Amino acid sequence: MTLARLFACLMLVVTLAAPAGAQTLAKQLFGAKDSASEHRPAAIGSYAKGCAAGAVQLPETGPTWQAMRLSRNRNWGLPDTIDFVTDLSRFAARLPGWNGLYVGDISQPRGGPMLSGHRSHQLGLDADIWMLPGTRMDLSRQQRENISSISLRRANGAYVNDNWTRQHHELLKAAASDKRVARIFVFPGAKVQMCKDETGNRRWLRKIRPWWGHHYHFHVRLSCPRGMRACVDQAPPPPGDGCDEAQAWVNNILNPPPPDPNVPKPAPRREYVLADLPDQCAAVLQD
């Protein structure tokens, strides 16, 4: 047993015995795990409040992909997610100027809240794909720590910039056309640009959802795999291609509406402890 796993086990014992107000934060428990649990693969809970049993690791390097920022140890996901990423990477390798994908965060070895960054990515069903074209599939570990993706946005996300290419359009289209995918988050200007450029079947555009940030990468979210009863799907996107909604986001970026004085301030966000997560997540931490 590694020191990290021993520490995590001790933390779990202390957590389960402690009063609710004194419990260790869930992100510290899950962040201390360096390997997956010995369970059948399962997503437990919701994308921003759950964990992943029996996750598998995306190999650091494949013929058409490289996992980035390896020091984070976030290249873990359910088998469906790993299969999706490798399938999409093979498509990317056929695009002009691309040899594959640079893959960002998927999940921690056992999912759960992360020590830094995301609120979601807790079920092993989310994956960040870099906007930087994957040209070299032989980057060293150190190079993968230092290299950066590229931003595709202009005017705070209202428009795409000169880094945007037709290849980005086709990559996002291929991802959204996959039946395993529930939705994809990308900055509003990219969605509007794709709405303008798409002349064929537009059904896939429904899954492309505008969201803040997401200009250095796009975020793919898979649906709960069949038979995983403890997995909670997000509500499906509204009917239609969503282009009018994306244009409304852009309009609000360019001409921000005045603040509504009657809107209450959001309550401070509380960090989760293990008791906040589904009961099965305690077993995921123990094995």
Can you put this structure into words, describing what you see?
The structure is a single chain. This protein is of the alpha+beta class and 287 residues long. The chain has helices at 3-17, 26-31, 79-92, 141-146, 166-177, 188-197, 243-254, 280-286, and strands at 42-46, 49-53, 56-57, 61-62, 65-67, 76-77, 101-103, 126-130, 153-154, 159-160, 181-186, 208-210, 217-222. Strands 8-13-11-12 form a four-stranded mixed β-sheet. Strands 4-5-7 form a three-stranded mixed β-sheet, with helices on one face. Strands 1-2 form a two-stranded antiparallel sheet. Strand 9 (153-154) and strand 10 form a beta hairpin.
Strand content: 15-25%
Measured between the Cα atoms of the first and last residue, the distance is 12 Å
Q: Mean of residue pLDDT?
A: 92
Query: Which oligomeric state applies?
Result: single chain
Which segments are poorly predicted (pLDDT under 50) over 5 or more consecutive residues?
1-21
Compact description:
By secondary structure, this protein is of the alpha+beta class.
What secondary-structure arrangement, pairings included, does this model have?
Layout: H1 3-17, H2 26-31, E1 42-46, E2 49-53, E3 56-57, E4 61-62, E5 65-67, E6 76-77, H3 79-92, E7 101-103, E8 126-130, H4 141-146, E9 153-154, E10 159-160, H5 166-177, E11 181-186, H6 188-197, E12 208-210, E13 217-222, H7 243-254, H8 280-286
Parallel strand pairs: 5-7, 11-12
Antiparallel strand pairs: 1-2, 3-6, 4-5, 8-13, 9-10, 11-13
Helix pairs in contact: 6-7
